[in-house]
Specification:
14 helices; alpha/beta; 9 strands; globular; TIM Barrel; eight-stranded parallel beta barrel
Length: 325
């Protein structure tokens, strides 16, 4: 059975043990080239701060680099945390990207800080940590993109990038539905059910000048290898990463399976983690069965693969794409 739908990539740009940060950033561009050749639709990077193991603190810079090294792939943010920034400046940044790479830029946007409290305070410079103004900020940035405000965002004469509201709760779903925008649900780090959240989005959706019917993307964490045992071993790295993230807020760099194995993380601990924050791990046959529900639910899947070795990461995306037509 093939899944007849689009599939895309969310790359967290992991900083891994045994490799310099510069090389890890280059790996992101190499991965984008790899998945473009395979036929993936888009490649997103997400804004995170003050995390040693995630190299996407400046997604707009990474987007420019990745778009320059690819030719057909849509490239964008998954997402920009809008309350951290001036809406005017972000409009100019993404207009510039759209001018450089017309018809290929996505502006995925969320309201979470993407960091701990200290970094959030530094980014927001006294603004509320709770992002109550996010709906108004969304109206502002759309106004800038469409020259509907008295202050003009430059460069002028540039089309609007595709806009997606991201969320891990019903708030983003309701806002996207109200504004008539596509919605991307972050199932990979949300304990809530994608089925309930996406159903709510579709029920509340109002057609807009941007979109005449709901469009739901679902983000999920998937690790594929030739066998279930190999995939489970590769997943040790992200299992430890997630455990430390929830314990300390900063999990450090992504360790290799060889480094994690001696810690003897119990299967019960790993299973409990995945029951709360779903991760799909296994051979192509196992993944085909595991993803069937989400593939039926979503209009598009956006897949993250936190694997230490870049070649194993590429192989995971190769095996996964073979399941999608």
């Amino acid at each position: 059975m093939l899944f007849y739908m689009d599939i895309s990539v969310l790359d967290l740009v992991p900083i891994v043990s045994g490799k310099s940060t510069a090389l890890c950033l280059q790996d992101a561009a190499a991965l984008a080239q790899h998945v473009e050749a395979l036929g993936y639709k888009r490649f997103w990077v997400a804004e995170h701060h003050d995390m040693d193991g995630i190299g996407s603190s400046a997604p707009e810079v990474l987007i420019a680099n990745i778009a320059a090294r690819t030719s057909r792939l849509r490239v964008g943010s998954g997402g920009i945390m809008l309350p951290n920034h001036s809406t005017y400046h972000m409009a100019e940044v993404f207009r510039t990207l759209e001018a450089l790479y017309p018809g290929r830029i996505d502006f995925g946007v969320g309201r979470a800080p993407g960091s701990g409290n200290k970094a959030t305070q530094a980014l927001r410079r006294g603004k509320s940590m709770y992002a109550e103004d996010f709906p108004e900020e969304m109206e502002d940035i759309i106004g800038y993109f469409n020259d509907e405000l008295s202050l003009k965002a430059v460069p002028q004469g540039i089309g609007m990038p595709e806009i997606y509201i991201l969320g891990s709760s019903d708030f983003g779903a309701q806002l996207a539905a109200k504004m008539g925008l596509p919605f991307a649900f972050a199932q990979h780090f949300s304990p809530l059910s994608a089925f309930k959240i996406v159903d709510l989005y579709r029920k509340l959706f109002r057609p807009s000048r941007w979109l005449d019917k709901p469009k739901a993307l679902v983000g999920c964490h998937v690790i594929v290898a030739d066998t279930d045992a190999q995939a489970s071993d590769l997943a040790l790295s992200s299992d430890l990463f997630q455990i430390l993230l929830r314990q300390t807020g900063n999990p450090g760099i992504l360790q290799s399976p060889d480094e994690v194995r001696p810690l003897n993380i119990s299967s019960d601990t790993r299973q409990a983690l995945r029951s709360q924050f779903p991760k799909f791990v296994g051979s192509p046959e196992t993944i085909q069965k595991s993803l069937a529900g989400l593939a039926e639910l979503a209009d598009e899947l956006v897949v993250s693969c936190m694997v230490h070795d870049i070649e194993a990461r590429k192989h995971s995306y190769t095996l996964l794409k073979a399941l999608f037509a």
